[in-house]
Amino acid sequence: MSVAPVTTGTGDQPTAGTPAPAGTPAPAGTPAPAGTPAPATRGNRVGGGLLDPGQLLRSLPDALRKLDPRTLWRNPVMLIVEIGAAFTTVLAVADPSVFAWAVTVWLWLTVVFANLAEAVAEGRGKAQAATLRQAKKDTVATRLAGWTPGTAASAYRQEPVPAPELRQGDIVLVEAGEIVPGDGDVVEGIASVDESAITGESAPVIRESGGDRSAVTGGTRVLSDHIVVRITQKPGESFIDRMIALVEGANRQKTPNEIALNILLAALTVVFLLAVVTLQPLAIFSKGYQAAAPDTGAVTDAGVTGIVLAALLVCLIPTTIGALLSAIGIAGMDRLVQRNVLAMSGRAVEAAGDVDTLLLDKTGTITLGNRQAAEFVPVEGRTAAEVADAAQLSSLADETPEGRSVVVLAKNWFGLREREPGLVPHATFVPFTAQTRMSGVDLGAENGRPTRRVRKGAAAAVMKWVRDNGGHPTEQVGRIVDEISGIGGTPLVVAEHVDGEPARALGVIHLKDVVKAGMRERFDEMRRMGIRTVMITGDNPRTARAIAEEAGVDDFLAEATPEEKLALISKEQEGGRLVAMTGDGTNDAPALAQADVGVAMNTGTSAAKEAGNMVDLDSDPTKLIEIVEIGKQLLITRGALTTFSIANDIAKYFAIIPAMFAGIYPSLDALNVMRLSSPTSAILSAVIFNAVVIVALIPLALRGVRYRPSSASTLLSRNLLRYGLGGIVVPFVGIKLIDLLVQFVPGI
Amino acid sequence: MTMTTAGVLFVLSLVAALVAVHKPLGDHMFRVVSGTRSSRVERGVYRLVGANPAAEQTWGVYARSVLAFSAVSLLFLYAFQRVQDKLWLSLGFDAVVPHGAWNTAVSFVTNTNWQSYSGESTMGHLVQMAGLAVQNFVSAAVGIAVAVALVRGFARSRTGQLGNFWVDLTRIVLRILLPIAVLAALALMLGGAVQNLSGGTEAATLTGGTQTVPGGPVASQEVIKELGTNGGGFYNANSAHPFENPTAWTNWLEIFLILVIPFSLPRVFGRMVGQKRQGYAIAAVMSLLALASVVLTNVFELTGGGTVPQAIGAALEGKEVRFDVSNSATFAAATTLTSTGAVNSFHDSYTPLGGMMPMINMMLGEVAPGGTGSGLYGMLVLAVLTVFVAGLMVGRTPEYLGRKIGAREIKFASLYFLVTPALVLIATATAFATGNDSTTLNVGPHGLSEVLYAFTSASNNNGSAFGGITVNTTWWDTATGLCMLLGRFLPIIFVLALAGSLARQTPTPASEGTLPTHRPLFVGMVVGVTVVLVALTFLPALALGPLAEGL
Fold first, then answer.
1. Which one of A24, B81, B230, B482 has the minimum C-beta count within 10 Å?
2. CB contact under 8 A, B548 and A528
3. Residue A366 gets which letter from DSSP?
4. What ipTM does this complex have?
């Protein structure tokens, strides 16, 4: 068995996916832009960064520093190992032998390996923190004294203030090319901002006052125009500061499940400590009975030697999981950071694994951003092509996404070239307004009186227009409209009024939500994992139901208001369920705060980011699903390694007990099923295995165990087979192999 | 019919009887512990102790009630023995010596019934009936009450209330233990067990000498000794004595009585949490462990080790011929799988590995099926520990019956699990380290087994003895007394604290993502966790005792 960890795969550098410094292009591995769902069936979907041997070496100094008992006391299992190692060192100095020194060295190595696991996990965070720090340059801000809205910035006294001295509520002016001095909200102006320092995404984003895109983050750079920003952070508590602290794991709090697991490990340690300590009087009694039995390297008239007792203790206490526990936690946070998600606490990551209900906003998460034209339905006597032609004409001036999609569909279906508004002769365009709920065009207005007018818009509005212009819409139009509404679509009626004739409806455009590819499969997966998905939409119940059925979600909340969203979360929690949601607007803030996992979009308002317990830098609401999987993977990794660690003890007993006592009672040699060559080599082999297995499992702890969405029963049987049964078998093989080598060491 | 066939039939008929009875008895117990109407007698009892039957208790109050009741019982029983010589029906015996009285008082209050005295030559009839037999009823009822309180923790939500200890205690004694005890005592008397207040009968022996054959209220005490998994015999020879256990079929009946309540309690659990299958899963874990233990004990005894046993085909030394090897081995397994500790044979004379089995049964924590109540709560704590490790492997914070197993729950479960191994190991090591091991008759591995057995039995509140060592010294009476006291009440406090924190939770509804706790896989895991945890704790000690001797 090699001490160096096995690095599998290539090309995935540890820095992949970390935020790049400002100005450089985003490195490979940056998450796909918002809106693209991750492929649904990739083998090891929740992967993680891999480990290269160089990183182990780089982390070695840190690992040695962590030998300080004042640091180690946080990890009681490893503290016991260190005490054991110190104890054997004293014994080895007092009574040197190859065996004593070999055990001593390997006990110290056990502690170092454990520290190494933690140091490597932290090291990856430190590299990320270093990149972030580059963004956190000490800028000088331009503070505007006594600013009130609506007046030019030049009218105020502009005082230069070092960025770290800015207070909450200060108003600063940021010009093109300058770095935003701290987190805040834009109160005046609009600008394009390069946020790559935080998000790794090089395309600039627009930030403007008012609305849901007003938040700016310190360390980002304004590229054009100028904005006035009200600082919302306290000094030293900027988003970037918090990110640095998080990825460094500087003041990492143990999560609830980690605390519980630590209690169990401590209890097991106490049991084994008792089992080992109380063994001595029994051993002395037995040796006294078999006084004729010769002393061995393990047991003399004075009982079991201190070296062997320490070795036994270290082999029995759950060192494997004790060594890797904190690395697993740090790596879990790290995997989120690699996906550009910042969790404000480890608690939130754990809660993500427990989520029972996912609240997903329809728009942007389940469906593509906007509704799109899907069909032109003509009334009797008209052709679809005529409807398309009229619809296209009336949509030329409609710059809403829905309007654009009509033009695109007309082109795709009937090859109608897009006519530039300026190229249509004698045309007066009527833009869409919320009051008229129509858009259209008046053609041939030579003498101020148009020859043909075309309108497109909400059914009720257009029908009224037809009637106002002397027409009588047929019942058929109403039927088509009802049909389209019935299946969840939005009908837009197209009508024309030719001069001298009554106005008439030509047909109906069917606008529908387009469900993102692969969403149904993902929701099926969620269902297998026991997670209920609820779609949140402002649509009416009928529309909502149609989309919910098409996307395959379990439930929906139609005509949702922020209050109803909050009420839904409370209701689910009342029933004992954990709820996760995403949100970006200020009105989402109460719901984000109430949800057990609230993921705020980075494009959202400061209020939303404050309320949530995670921030997605890519602002991709689909990522909630991945966050849940990372949470589950974190818990599974802990459980798997705990099981493995405890199961390992069986083989160690079969190595050490005959080694200790076969000298007194030869019949106990029957327990030496591995046929290890001598008592000392057996004990040493067990100790070496115990240490080496820690290093061998570091990559697994950092990467997390393989996770595929499936039911609890399937997961349990698979993991139990792999880590339970594996945990029993592997050490038998491992200890035997080590013994085959160790027996040749002189003096063992 | 060979001895093996007879043994197999014996076990199979027991299994069949238990399967048949667990349902009606479980349902009856369920009704008793969830009923609200009190009888006149019960209302009288409540008035007497000043309890309000309608008032529910938090875990702390429930625990204080258990402790207060037990403390009063302990003091009373101690005083009772100390003034025995001045009481009616003392048969002329002296007052019990202080360390003996302390040990016996603790022993009966903790449902252990470890006996460092010889019944027929120490205790008068009044102490036996009004002191010891009363504790046999109430200490068993305390165990059931605590188990019911824990199950209420699983069954209730968003409340701190776990029921009322005084109501539970009274109802369990009057409606469960007493009626069964009366019926079974009549059956035992039919089988030949004695029931009188005689001080002793002079009889002539075959060799022409005379001996005094002591009588007494044996059948009545024998029944509750088994039914309440107490184990304290009227006579020193315990259930090997023909007045306590006259025939093969009374032997069958006594084993049945030992197992019947513990094996029916999972049904109560299933019904209280509203999912009978959860109860069956727990019963399945208990049955698997119990069957494995019974089979192994029988195999080790029937295939016997050593020269003499092999010559006669089995290890018959220390066993009654009327029960033969197999039915003695089965009794030994049953009495140690529960917290009974009654014996119908001399465990010290078993083959080394056969004698190790009762020890392992107790080391498992007496959970298969365990003592009345204590078996169920012990098994549920093990299920909680299993859920904690296994639950993580399904990617959720572990849950059992919708209750999250967090830091607080795992703290109490771990503490519960720590108590008995700590007591056994520390006490055994102290005995050897201080030269109080009393192993004058047997040295070497067998002597070590005797001491290990004694403390395992005391700390797990079993009460059976391997024998072969002198345990009525001040040191032993004090040490085993402490083991019994701490081994009973510390776990009870932790169980009630666990119940309290479970009852406060809002249960999470089960989904596809929840670990199913009623399937064979989970049953197998609880068995595995139980065996592995015990093996890991006690293997070094066992290696120097029975394993060294038997391998």
1. A24
2. no
3. I
4. 0.95
